Amino acid sequence: MVNQFPQVLTIAGSDSDGSAGLQADMNTFQRCGVYGMSVLTAAVAGNSYGIFASHPMPLDFINQQFKVLTDDFVIKACKTGMLTDTATIKTVADNYRQYDLGPLVLDPVIITKHGDMLLEEDAFETLKSELIPQATVLTPNYYEAVKLTGTEIDSPADALQAAHILQKMGAKNVMVKGRHTSTTQAEVTDTVLLEDGTSFTLSAPYINTTHINGTGDLLSACIAAEIAKGTSIEAAIRQAKKFVTAAIADELFVGHKYGPVNHLTDYNFD
């Protein structure tokens, strides 16, 4: 039976230390029980201390990756990660329109969890116009949601308002990830708005650790994997929240400074 096993695609950069990017996505896919493949958009030289060099992939190479994968595999869902610049974003958007890649989980890698901008302004605008309207699930962090909507978010009610704005931009389902305000806060609360208009919040204990690299990658990759397995959007989001919480809580001591979350944590997907 050819292509019966659930297959999922990540469209992302390579993070050389394995803590984030397509390496984190592939680790997540394996833990979720799906077959993962990748379209490489950039290569980053980094470790737990930081990023020291990066190199975008040529656009014709990105196009060729999409072609050869869709010529052979049946991709049930895909997710995005680092898309680097305007030209790359347009190329990815064009390929997503051209090929059947299943539902798109858009992790808008715009601003870090610490508030540092990762995209130039023109690339940011291109992401808004080209990819957000194609997103089945959009998963911005606090800073990205503020930047995308131009609103302040100080409460779950504010986050829900922001989610409605993002839904009006074209995203079908939106998960606004909660802000990490201090090391003394008790919980982190995410706000979810589904396509049918229903909404809910997901809270988990705040865990004071420096081993949080790749949390956004794990979350969005898990959502995509669960969708590919036939799970509903709501159930996929709830499952991903539980998995990422477990992966942060079960610290994996790799690297000297900002380490990865633990994809190997003993979490039961059943």
UniProtKB/TrEMBL annotation:
Any one GO molecular function term: kinase activity
Pyridoxamine kinase/Phosphomethylpyrimidine kinase domain sequence ranges: 15-262
EC identifiers of the protein: 2.7.1.49, 2.7.4.7
UniProt-listed SUPFAM superfamilies: Ribokinase-like
Domain of life: Bacteria
Pfam families for the chain: Phos_pyr_kin
Catalytic activity: 4-amino-2-methyl-5-(phosphooxymethyl)pyrimidine + ATP = 4-amino-2-methyl-5-(diphosphooxymethyl)pyrimidine + ADP; 4-amino-5-hydroxymethyl-2-methylpyrimidine + ATP = 4-amino-2-methyl-5-(phosphooxymethyl)pyrimidine + ADP + H(+)
Keyword Transmembrane helix in annotation: no
Pathway field: Cofactor biosynthesis; thiamine diphosphate biosynthesis; 4-amino-2-methyl-5-diphosphomethylpyrimidine from 5-amino-1-(5-phospho-D-ribosyl)imidazole: step 2/3; Cofactor biosynthesis; thiamine diphosphate biosynthesis; 4-amino-2-methyl-5-diphosphomethylpyrimidine from 5-amino-1-(5-phospho-D-ribosyl)imidazole: step 3/3
UniProt entry keywords in alphabetical sequence: Kinase, Thiamine biosynthesis, Transferase
Stated family: Belongs to the ThiD family.
Protein name: Hydroxymethylpyrimidine/phosphomethylpyrimidine kinase
Species this chain originates from: Ligilactobacillus pabuli
